[in-house]
Specification:
The protein is mostly helical and 393 residues long. The protein has a single domain, classed as MFS general substrate transporter like domains (Growth Hormone, Chain: A, Up-down Bundle). 84% of the residues lie in helices and 0% in strands. It contains 19 helices and no strands. The radius of gyration is 20 Å and the shape is globular.
């Protein structure tokens, strides 16, 4: 579990490292900050769309083994980013890297879904995602600091070394831990696996999950990509300082992860969903109104707590959408999450280049509580239906 959490750390680091670099990339390549944000959008699109390939392959060849291979290949992708001489080539390298990095967290989650019973899965997933949270926090902080002092390429060289080290640890686990080889194969061809993934979308509950996570990705991660830039412009912070400010976001998620084992039995997952949406919405309101960095800090922290309250519940239910094809189901879930994120970043970039970050913050401040309220309603109906079916059986 520790090695998988480290792989999640690397995945998050590659995802969020460019955020504090946007002003530097814009200056280097002679474009706007919104134009430079295409390095985030391209990564997110590939991260999401390639799940339709990664999921079925993971079900076929073994989820843990697949995590090892994509981690190793991602090292080469990050090296290509560091060596890119122009913005179009950097975007292309980021797209290719996103295609492989995108398999890490969904397949690791699917492997946990296979290995851990449902009643113990939420706290286990929360602990697994601690690595992801630290990846976001340290990547934002280190990326701004390294980029400001040594250039943006150094950030991608550091990511290359990180991926090589974690790939070595995953290989060692595959060689020494029998549990990592479980449930490979399944007897299906890749074509049959793809068709099974497509068939999942016929289930109304699966469609609810996919629509919810798409909107969550757009509303949360769209404006979040520009928080470091906004702090740099509005509060006069350096790139390193704005990256450090953004690192408060995953600390909120870490607090939820540590408290989830006691919080969930106490208030229930429907209350967690609604509370998460309300907290994240309130955080974006605070961020929009903040007059200095010290006021923005608790707002970013609240967004982090709210995100992980909402998203961790979605992730747990994603592992249960189709237990017989868990790799494909979780990959489909991730596809919609990161397609939503890419859409959100693109839409937010239009606002940022036109009038600033305020409209993006306000849309999320209103949209997230409404999304959480609607999902809570549908979740209550789903749990009631499942309970009735169990009673009949």
């Amino acid at each position: 579990m520790v090695v998988l959490s480290l792989a999640a750390f690397a995945s998050a680091a590659a995802l969020r490292a460019p955020d504090p670099l946007l002003p530097l990339l814009a200056q280097t390549f002679g474009t706007t900050v919104g134009g430079a944000s295409v390095v985030i959008t391209a990564f997110g699109i590939a991260y999401g769309l390639l799940q339709v390939v990664n999921g079925p392959i993971g079900d076929r060849v073994g989820k843990y083994r697949m995590v090892f291979w994509v981690t190793a290949i991602s090292a080469a992708g990050n090296l290509a980013c560091a060596l890119a001489p122009s913005l179009p080539l950097l975007v292309a390298a980021r797209f290719v890297t996103g295609a492989t990095v995108g398999a890490i967290v969904p397949l690791a989650m699917a492997w946990i879904g296979d290995a851990v019973p449902y009643e113990r899965r939420q706290p286990v997933l929360a602990r697994f995602l601690i690595g992801h949270m630290f990846g976001i926090a340290l990547a934002a902080m280190a990326s701004g600091w390294l980029g400001e002092r040594h250039g943006w390429q150094v950030v991608f060289y550091a990511l290359t070394a990180l991926y090589l080290g974690i790939a070595a640890l995953l290989w060692f686990e595959l060689r020494t831990n029998p549990a990592t080889a479980q449930r490979a194969g399944g007897g299906l061809t890749l074509r049959e696996s793809f068709l099974r993934m497509l068939a999942l979308t016929r289930d109304p509950w699966v469609r609810v999950m996919l629509a919810t996570v798409f909107l969550e990705g757009a509303l949360l991660y769209g404006p979040l990509a520009f928080v470091a830039y906004d702090a740099h412009q509005r509060f006069g912070l350096s790139l390193g300082e704005s990256g450090a400010l953004l690192s408060v976001f995953p600390l909120g998620g870490l607090c939820f992860a540590l408290a989830s084992g006691r919080l969930l039995p106490w208030i229930g997952e429907r209350a967690v969903v609604l509370g998460g949406g309300l907290l994240a919405g309130a955080g974006f309101i605070g961020l929009a109104l903040a007059s200095k960095a010290a006021i923005a800090l608790p707002s970013i922290f609240a967004i982090g707590v709210g995100l992980y309250m909402l998203h961790n519940t979605l992730q747990v239910h994603a592992t249960q959408m189709a237990p017989e094809a868990r790799g494909a189901a979780v990959a489909l879930f991730a596809c919609f999450l990161f397609t939503g994120q890419s859409t959100g970043v693109w839409l937010a970039s239009r606002a940022v280049d036109g009038v600033g970050t305020l409209p993006a913050y306000l849309v999320s401040a209103v949209g997230l509580p409404l999304l959480a309220l609607e999902f809570r309603r549908r979740l209550a109906r789903r749990l009631l239906l499942v309970g009735e079916v169990k009673a009949v059986n």
